[in-house]
Amino acid sequence: MRSVGVVAKARLDRAASHLAQIGAWLEERHLTPVFDPETAALATSAGTTAQFDVVDQDELPRHVDMIVVLGGDGTLLGTAGRIAKAGLDIPILGVNFGSLGFLTEVTLPEIFTSLEGAVNGTAQIEERMMLRVAVVAGARRLAERVVLNDVVVTSGALSRIIELSVSVDGESMMRVKADGLIIASPTGTTAYNLSAGGPIVHPQVDGLTITPIAPHTLTNRPVVVPGSSEIRIQPLIHEENGEVFATFDGQSLLPLKSDHIVSVRRAETRLRLIRATSRGYFQVLREKLKWGEI
């Protein structure tokens, strides 16, 4: 390992002093810290006079061997998407500054212990399934993304029920009237899927979860299908002013029309996530979901 990327949530003032400390810690071990412009500005605001390499966020994965993310799960999701877009598999260490943080599970007191393990090769690295999403209209490919958590198809700003046709591996599964539909990876089952009443799926399970959001018919229940499946969703828009959108990891949004099909399958690339050495997966669930508390 020669260089380490450092990314902080935008305007996260609480992280400023930690950024300078991380940069100095890396340099003491003859590693080059590389910041994106906003993170570098945040570190400077803490009064550090150190000069760090600065690279644009989209290009950062190509210049480093690992990325440390300070923020919440949203910041990590954005970084994971950039790594996937670059076609790389460099690991991410997520430090939690958010309120929940299933992905950014390393706490502030654990930063340097976790960094030490990552740098010397003793850290536990989990490979997480990612999703490849394509939006097509006939022979036209309108968009393609690789996401970590989920793909969500929902209505527009007005609260209204939409109708969706869903198939799995070419076989019709259901036509559902609901507020929307979530296709989640195992990692993504603790995100929007959990709020919508979907199951928690262990991240090492090879499966995709299909969860209707507030379905009109209560027998439309969440379903887990094999990870090798291709799921296709087509909006059935009956009103001229009907609005349906697809969102990808909550990071970007695409309007859909009646002839658009959203195809979701397991991506070829996987995210490499550095785990906190002091906690297992179920301990994280107990802490985040307050299981067993009186």
Characterization of this structure:
Helix content is 20%, strand content 37%. With 294 residues, the chain is of the alpha+beta class. It folds into two domains: 3-124 and 275-289, 3-Layer(aba) Sandwich (Rossmann fold), CATH 3.40.50.10330; 130-268, Tumour Suppressor Smad4 (Sandwich). β1 (3-8), α1 and β2 form a beta-alpha-beta unit. The radius of gyration is 20 Å and the shape is elongated. The mean pLDDT is 92.
Give a brief rundown of this model.
The chain is built from six helices and 17 strands. It has helices at 16-28, 37-45, 73-85, 111-120, 192-195, 281-289, and strands spanning 3-8, 32-35, 53-54, 67-71, 92-96, 125-137, 140-147, 150-155, 162-168, 171-178, 180-184, 207-213, 223-226, 231-235, 244-248, 252-256, 261-274.
SSE blueprint:
Elements: E1 3-8, H1 16-28, E2 32-35, H2 37-45, E3 53-54, E4 67-71, H3 73-85, E5 92-96, H4 111-120, E6 125-137, E7 140-147, E8 150-155, E9 162-168, E10 171-178, E11 180-184, H5 192-195, E12 207-213, E13 223-226, E14 231-235, E15 244-248, E16 252-256, E17 261-274, H6 281-289
Parallel strand pairs: 1-2, 1-4, 2-3, 4-5
Antiparallel strand pairs: 6-7, 6-17, 8-11, 8-15, 9-10, 9-14, 11-12, 12-13, 14-17, 15-16
